[in-house]
Amino acid sequence: xxxxxxxxxxxxxxxxxxxxxxxxxxxxxxxxxxxxxxxxxxxxxxxxxxxxxxxxxxxxxxxxxxxxxxxxxxxxxxxxxxxxxxxxxxxxxxxxxxxxxxxxxxxxxxxxxxxxxxxxxxxxxxxxxxxxxxxxxxxxxxxxxxxxxxxxxxxxxxxxxxxxxxxxxxxxxxxxxxxxxxxxxxxxxxxxxxxxxxxxxxxxxxxxxxxxxxxxxxxxxxxxxxxxxxxxxxxxxxxxxxxxxxxxxxxxxxxxxxxxxxxxxxxxxxxxxxxxxxxxxxxxxxxxxxxxxxxxxxxxxxxxxxxxxxxxxxxxxxxxxxxxxxxxxxxxxxxxxxxxxxxxxxxxxxxxxxxxxxxxxxxxxxxxxxxxxxxxxxxxxxxxxxxxx
Length: 389
Known about the structure:
Layout: E1 5-6, E2 11-12, H1 17-34, H2 38-44, H3 49-57, H4 76-87, H5 91-111, H6 114-125, E3 131-134, E4 150-154, E5 157-168, E6 175-181, E7 191-197, E8 203-208, E9 219-230, E10 234-235, H7 241-277, E11 279-280, E12 283-284, H8 289-317, H9 323-348, H10 359-366, H11 376-387
Parallel strand pairs: 3-6
Antiparallel strand pairs: 1-2, 4-5, 5-9, 6-7, 7-10, 8-9, 11-12
Helix pairs in contact: 1-4, 4-5, 4-7, 5-6, 5-7, 7-8, 7-9, 7-10, 8-9, 9-10, 9-11
């Protein structure tokens, strides 16, 4: 980080001792456990569960979970640092770590009752269980209130039928928080959140997506066929699900902003190193203004995205409303990840188009950041709505 201090708004962006510790730990972990097999996982679309078990041992699968529930008890500041460092190594691993933390685990942490927290958070925080979170459907991406997956009350149970799509850990997840319609179509109070364990009859994973990037992060369907879930598995109250989801996504946008930062950081660092080493016309290509100016633009945009992301994280830590700020951070950082990784490929030239160098993967992975957890266009709608209030 740049070490900038914004004293007028009470934010200090110098790395704390905890942030430095986390960053160093992840860099060492990456060299030992991620780099050696990263491209194999990418090629085969293997979701390396064992890596996430090891991340759980380090406390990185429960970064925000209080220590009383088996987590690390850190703030969003440390969380952003962790995702960024992981993202600078492998976007897939960082994406899965972020989705597990901020969506499934985060939803239970934020809205679960004490019994639910004690039951699920220790398993999730240690990665004994992998978590999934189901909102999106084939016909309802951003238009969530038209969801077709429904639950009907039947005594002490609710019977769920329908399908969720584009779900991280849709097959491998041990437990999912699922948003389903329990009321009328288009009613924002007609959606309820349920905790559904993988072993529940009538609940299974479906088609696994064959993706452009983030290929080692599993994306698949959740299928419910007369799946009976006890009323004790409801998060909050019946009808609170949509409002809960919007609050969860405020934090989720910070996760994707941090993921975007990581990808941009990895692509930028690789480009700087290459520009110093690659010789053309008798000198390093970094000496040429055409390359130097690219690097200058990449570094400037990265640091701007970094400040926006940590601003949103700081507001989240202080329990301030940050719908606008998280949307701005997610929108800007994700677009920066695409621009920086695109320029990185250009700087590497022909080598950047091969899988022998890391920027090809950063380039493919970056695009999801502008789509997942709300497209760039949706972020603009959120930002516009907030500033016009």
